[in-house]
């Protein structure tokens, strides 16, 4: 779910200020932005006293984690075989299912698992998998109010580089 959003169905999982909590009842680092996470700690100094005072050296927040994860996923699509074997196809489907299960932002993971259940992973070719992933990413973009990416360009963005 969108970090910072308020919901009516799962109030126990959110701090009054809209911060997503972990299963332990404490603010969940990979589910929130660095700013939202630290707003729930006594002070920024207290939150970062054993590490650097800059976000760069801290455990990943929802945005850093997301950006890195999409980079990994689209880069996997970029090297996925153009004509995958039955075993490649079954492996990538299992990988995506397990990725969604273990994704560190639990609220993102729940929505992503639901998406995979609704829209089965399509991976009978590189192009099909690249487009499936692009659509999945766009679903999250829409939820977060970000621009929708033109999926006809996924390969230029993640494999070949932009055409001049
Ligand atoms: P990102 O969305 O991280 O994208 C990185 C780059 O990918 C962009 O700069 C662009 O060049 C390219 N790109 C953008 N869209 C596409 C596309 N459709 N296809 C191909 N390339 C594209 N955050 C939340 O707050 N709540 C959530 O519920 C949530 N769920 C997530 C679920 C998953 C599985 C993942 C991996 C991330 C999730 N995130 C969630 C994180 C969120 O999607 C972003 O990664 C984060 O907000 C940082 O966004 P960004 O603007 O840097 O670009």
From TrEMBL:
* Top-level taxon of origin: Eukaryota
In its keyword annotation, does this UniProt entry include Transferase? no
Subcellular localization: Mitochondrion intermembrane space
GO CC terms: mitochondrial intermembrane space
Task: Supply the Pfam families for this chain.
Answer: Evr1_Alr (PF04777)
The alphabetized UniProt keywords are: Disulfide bond, FAD, Flavoprotein, Mitochondrion, Oxidoreductase
Enzyme Commission (EC) number: 1.8.3.2
The record ties this protein, via SUPFAM superfamilies, to:
FAD-dependent thiol oxidase (SSF69000)
| Coiled-coil ranges per UniProt | none
- Extract one GO molecular function annotation from the record: flavin adenine dinucleotide binding
What's the cofactor? FAD
Q: Which reaction does it catalyse?
A: 2 R'C(R)SH + O2 = R'C(R)S-S(R)CR' + H2O2
Q: What is its main location?
A: mitochondrion
> What are the residue boundaries of the ERV/ALR sulfhydryl oxidase domain, all occurrences included?
58-158
Name of the top EC class for this enzyme: oxidoreductase
Q: What is this protein called?
A: Sulfhydryl oxidase
Protein source organism: Rhypophila decipiens
């Amino acid at each position: 779910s969108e970090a910072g959003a308020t919901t009516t169905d799962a109030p126990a999982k959110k701090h009054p200020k809209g911060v997503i909590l972990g299963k332990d009842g404490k603010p969940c680092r990979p589910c929130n932005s660095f700013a939202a996470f630290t707003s729930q700690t006594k002070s920024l100094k207290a939150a970062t006293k054993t590490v650097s005072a800059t976000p760069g050296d801290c455990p990943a927040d929802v945005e850093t984690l997301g950006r890195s994860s999409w980079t990994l996923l689209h880069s996997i699509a970029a090297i996925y075989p153009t004509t995958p074997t039955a075993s490649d196809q079954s492996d990538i489907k299992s990988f995506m299912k397990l990725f969604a299960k273990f994704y560190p932002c639990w609220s993102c993971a729940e929505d992503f698992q639901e998406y995979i259940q609704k829209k089965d992973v399509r991976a009978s070719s590189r192009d099909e998998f690249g487009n499936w992933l692009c659509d999945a990413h766009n679903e999250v973009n829409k939820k977060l109010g970000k621009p929708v990416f033109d999926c006809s360009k996924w390969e230029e963005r993640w494999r070949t580089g932009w055409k001049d």
